[in-house]
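== Item description ==
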Amino acid sequence: MTPRSGCPVSHTDYTRESEIYGHYALLDEEREAERFHFNDTTERGFWMLTRYEDVLAGFQNHANWTTAVRTALFPGSTIELFPQDLNGEEHQKFRRILNPFFSPAAVRRMEELAHSRCVELLEELAPQGHCNFVAEFAIRYPTDLFLVLMGLPVQDGDFFLPWTEEMFGCMLQGDLDGAAVPKAKILAYFQEAVDERRANPRDPAEDMVTRLVQAELDGEPLSDDTILTTCMSIMLAGLDTTRSALGYIFAHLARNDEDRALLIEEPERTRDAVEEFIRLYPLVIQAGREVQEAEDFRGLEMAPKDVVWLGIGSANRDPRKYEDPDRFVLGRPGLNQHLAFGAGPHRCLGMHLARLELAVVLEEWHKVIPHYRIKEGTELIERGSQLTLKDLELEWDV
């Protein structure tokens, strides 16, 4: 794929590490320099949509721009994900199987457990006076809730978490061969759960593995391969993204005493704060799409198989949409129109659960550890691709 005439070329490699907020600075610069760019850092290259109105239109163009490519940075990924890889009616049918576990009502039923598990983890951490937040808390907490959601033992996180960490690390550097080993362990773990549920089914309204085992699609039961892929897809979609958001949120609060004080003194505003935080630090900075039929998109002549970057991270900070977009502002006008969870039929299935997890952590953490700081000398580095802080060393007085 080669850039068409008239479109500026970006050579920015968004898979590289940078200092904290480095990727956002690059995104802001490109968004304000030109409306569109063609990025040539991958074998296929991709069109970059970075402004709010264009990114929103791109998400809504789901009939022609499909998830045959899920990420513009790694368009050749061979790891199947359900329902992300499905489109049209097939996608809608599959989501109907999963929707009961991710609806607002279902998430509310998890709230008590979400609070209790968070408190348990905090009781372990608080006496230490310090932690690497992203490694010791921000990934462990969503992993535990994922296991509960699936109906699996929360203590399995002790061995399950290292597998997921290894798989994330490989996938986000395009190392699919390296990801194969932890992937095999994860699938074997899910297969054991599927076999057990076939022999001893539980309540399908509360146990997701049983729900998948008993579900039908077009009158046919789901194959084991489909069930295993679905379990892994939910895992991949929910764990690293939540860790990413929590890392940026707590780095922000450790550096901005006034914002932290507001949440400590007015905890009832936590849910509104979550919405502004995920606008400012969305769980993913881009979504990929593949063009199916040639079209003119606002002056860009797109051909079949072209790859498109839908720039969530830059759209959410577009000054054409949000005034003073790089600031944390509670009560911001139009906040509920942010694109942190995408838009259209592929909008994030787990968005209600993600909101709950972030809110619970903010509420419970500040009850136990209201005052904390970044350890002196800590270098805040963000991983490329799917942004997350590699380390966040926090400390507090005990």
In short: Residues 190 and 231 are 7 Å apart (CA to CA). The chain has a mean pLDDT of 92. Residues 224-255 form the longest helix (32 residues). The radius of gyration is 21 Å.
